[in-house]
């Protein structure tokens, strides 16, 4: 872009006439032009330095705008626009901009003003020589429209409301990739890490963004040799922050995309907190039967204090009294944090974040929330907001694949303390793959917030439909849908009448076989919980694994209505469940015994 320096001065005219204004334009690498303005409002432009290169003058976008073809006079069509140039003292800098149709004034915070001068694009200057300009105009307009979307995205750094088409997204990513050093037209790489990719398929898979994100000292730090990738990373961090603000609360102050799945992202959080409170070694953990969450505590070198839930009605809820007791026993100074959970499988319900946050505030203990697939749940989001307002809730972690429908491998770490979130980001060692960043960028632009809100509404409708369908099926077999009103994602149906005459162990095999039969019929995500399984995780024993407590009164299966689910998924699931239940019921009716070997399928995450 040519830089135009403009200097205004008054020159007295002979005969006592009023002085007239002169605007002196010094165009970088081009002749200097003087734009003279008389009191009557007429303008004249002329060169005050010699240049014999017609080609240079034609390529000078600013000069082409100010001058008419083959004359030293100003183009009259541009006269009304130039009349609006402000009468200010001192030297001002002006830059041209391809996307503008007319000159505009921009006032910056320091008081300086920029004149944005429209210029001819490469398509206007070259394309018009190849085909008629009236044909070119339509194509130029659509290019300008796409450029405008990109400009607004970079200016606002917000999640666009309307979805982008694939072509615009690919154009944007191609422009980002072109700024990385491995894609320079002329490049000389003599380092050990120059994004050299052997396979062209791998290079295409990553859209040629091969340098990764971050630097050795900070996951959010830009790389000099990867400007496009760094810009993409910074933009995506702004976008996921806006996602959290829209779905949870405008009070969320910081967020970033961590290139690890939820469990390892929680490890990163715990390691960062450990540096802030090095003497503390315990993590208070209300039991949730998911191995990755529990293992994250062990991996971080900390000791879990497992708090068993209490059975209230049909729901497994947070034992607040036990949380208070454990703080008194172990001491607040020795406890690093409370690690609570929002999204979970019924009959477990989200932890009571409001009273937990009050305890953490009173005792000055960190509070981390495992919000794995809770971003899509208005109930979980509301709990996080309530917890942050009632007391202390520092950080919450959510999966990208479960909430934003991208491949597994990323998580959003967010919180209400900007400095703390930044320290967590800086704890990450080295650079990271840009795959997760690219996936999120493409998905958020393809989806738009409007489409995502439509998916959330559909998710709520599917939950109601799934529950109704399971209730109808349960009645046919004398079962019941377990009432868990505080869990609006997962639904549990009892299996009390399936092989009830068998002893616990053989009956548990029959119940497990139901899950295996469903899996072989391509039903994924359904969990059968016997209530009698003993699971050992990192040396710790959990009785009644899967039910989130030691003695849940009945076996059951669960299914969830999550984002992206279709109505026909429920119909097909109910049909397959009906088929499998009838088959097992016929095999293991009254006075029948276990007569064949079972193939078990472990569907636990």
Give your account of this protein's structure.
- By secondary structure, the protein is an alpha+beta fold.
- The chain contains 18 helices and 21 strands.
- It has helices spanning 54-59, 61-66, 79-82, 122-127, 133-156, 166-178, 200-205, 227-247, 262-276, 291-299, 320-330, 353-363, 378-390, 400-404, 418-427, 435-476, 504-520, 567-587, and strands spanning 3-11, 20-27, 32-37, 43-47, 91-97, 104-107, 113-118, 254-258, 282-286, 303-307, 310-312, 315-317, 335-341, 366-370, 395-399, 411-415, 490-494, 527-529, 534-537, 540-543, 556-560.
- Strand 14 (366-370), helix 13 (378-390) and strand 15 form a beta-alpha-beta unit.
- Residues 1-8, 18-118 and 590-605 have low confidence and may be disordered.
């Amino acid at each position: 872009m040519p830089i135009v320096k403009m200097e205004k001065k008054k020159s007295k005219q002979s005969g006592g006439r009023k002085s007239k204004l002169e605007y002196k334009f010094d165009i970088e690498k081009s002749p200097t032009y003087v734009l003279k303005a008389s009191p009557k409002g007429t303008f004249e432009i002329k060169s005050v330095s010699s240049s014999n290169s017609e080609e240079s003058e034609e390529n000078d976008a600013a000069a082409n705008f100010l001058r008419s073809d083959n004359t030293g006079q100003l183009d009259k069509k541009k006269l009304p626009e130039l009349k609006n140039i402000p009468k200010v003292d001192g030297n001002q800098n002006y830059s041209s901009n391809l996307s503008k149709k007319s000159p505009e004034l921009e006032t910056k915070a320091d008081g300086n003003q920029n004149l944005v001068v429209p210029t001819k694009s490469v398509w206007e200057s070259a394309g018009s020589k190849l085909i008629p300009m009236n044909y070119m105009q339509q194509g130029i307009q659509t290019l300008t429209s796409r450029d405008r979307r990109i400009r607004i995205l970079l200016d606002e750094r917000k999640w666009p409301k309307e979805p982008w088409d694939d072509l615009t997204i690919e154009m944007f990513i191609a422009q980002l990739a072109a700024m990385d050093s491995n894609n320079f037209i002329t490049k000389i790489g003599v380092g050990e890490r120059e994004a050299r990719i052997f396979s062209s398929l791998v290079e295409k898979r990553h859209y040629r963004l091969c340098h990764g994100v971050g630097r050795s000292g900070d996951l959010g730090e830009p790389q000099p040799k990867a400007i496009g990738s760094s810009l993409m990373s910074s933009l995506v961090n702004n976008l996921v922050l806006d996602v959290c603000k829209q779905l949870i609360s405008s009070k969320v102050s910081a967020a970033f995309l961590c290139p690890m799945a939820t469990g390892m992202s929680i490890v990163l959080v715990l390691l960062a907190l450990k540096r802030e409170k090095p003497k503390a070694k315990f993590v208070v953990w209300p039991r949730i039967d998911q191995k990755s969450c529990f293992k994250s505590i062990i991996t971080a070198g900390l000791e879990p204090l497992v708090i068993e839930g209490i059975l209230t009605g049909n729901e497994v809820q947070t034992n607040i009294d036990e949380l208070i007791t454990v703080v008194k026993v172990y001491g607040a100074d020795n406890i690093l944090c409370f690690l609570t959970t929002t999204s979970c499988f019924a009959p477990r319900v989200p932890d009571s974040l409001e009273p937990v946050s009050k305890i953490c505030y009173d005792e000055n203990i960190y509070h981390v929330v495992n919000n794995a697939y809770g971003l899509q749940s208005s109930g979980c989001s509301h709990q996080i907001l309530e917890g942050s307002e009632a007391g202390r809730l520092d950080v919450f972690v959510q999966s990208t694949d479960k909430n934003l429908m991208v491949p597994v491998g990323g998580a959003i770490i967010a919180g209400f303390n900007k400095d703390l979130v930044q320290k967590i980001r800086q704890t990450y060692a080295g650079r990271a793959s840009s795959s997760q960043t690219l996936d999120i960028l493409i998905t958020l632009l393809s989806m738009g917030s409007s489409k995502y809100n439509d998916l959330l509404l559909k998710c709520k409708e599917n939950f109601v439909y799934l529950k109704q369908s399971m209730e109808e099926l349960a009645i046919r077999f004398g079962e019941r849908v377990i009432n868990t009103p505080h869990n609006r994602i997962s639904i549990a149906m009892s299996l009390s009448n399936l092989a009830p005459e068998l002893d616990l162990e053989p009956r548990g095999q029959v119940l497990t076989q139901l899950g295996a039969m469903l899996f072989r019929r391509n039903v994924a995500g359904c969990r059968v919980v016997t209530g009698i399984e003993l699971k050992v995780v990192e040396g710790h024993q959990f009785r009644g694994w899967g039910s989130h407590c030691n003695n849940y009164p009945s076996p059951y299966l669960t299914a969830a209505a999550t984002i992206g689910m279709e109505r026909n998924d429920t119909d097909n699931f109910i049909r397959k469940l009906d088929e499998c239940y009838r088959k097992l019921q016929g095999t293991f009716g009254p006075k029948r015994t276990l007569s064949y070997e079972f193939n078990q399928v472990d569907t636990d995450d």
